[in-house]
Amino acid sequence: MLRVSIILTTLLLTACTSLPPYSGKVTILSTTKSQPLEGAMCVVETGAGRWTVQTPGTVTVGQPAGDLRVVCDKEGYRTSEVIHRGQGRGSATRMGVGIAGGSGGGVGISLGMGIPVSGWRDDYPEQVLVDMTPL
């Protein structure tokens, strides 16, 4: 059982250390009827600020600060909005490993290290796709 615990711990730690770093950049893309649409003017907003970008384009928003809101306009199309709800720091899902013995006089081993299982939960997405409907 100790061997199983060591293997599980190693796998969890390896998975956590292999997560790519968050760049703080978000690429804004617009589409219409599943086809790329260039030239939409978009306002990207978080709790940390507000930026304007023309699609396709990338904006540096930095570390997550609340919801990520993207509103795009283009002549001949309805205004479209996408909101990525922020999870807030410290709310990442955490997982512990526990192993217990069988019935009777079994041995129990518990490892509750609070290892985060999702590095992307608190980060904004790398790309936001805004679908725009023609008027």
Descriptive account of the structure:
- The protein has 135 residues and is mainly β.
- It has one domain (2-131).
- The protein is 12% helix and 41% strand.
- It has one helix and ten strands.
- The chain has one helix at residues 2-17, and strands spanning 25-32, 35-36, 41-46, 49-54, 57-60, 68-73, 80-84, 94-99, 109-116, 127-131.
- Strands 1, 2, 5 and 10 form a four-stranded mixed beta sheet that branches.
- A hairpin with a 2-residue loop joins β1 and β2.
- The longest helix is centred in the first third of the chain and has 16 residues, at 2-17.
- It is elongated and about 65 Å long.
- It starts with a helix and ends with a strand.
- The model is unreliable at 89-100 and 108-121 (pLDDT under 50).
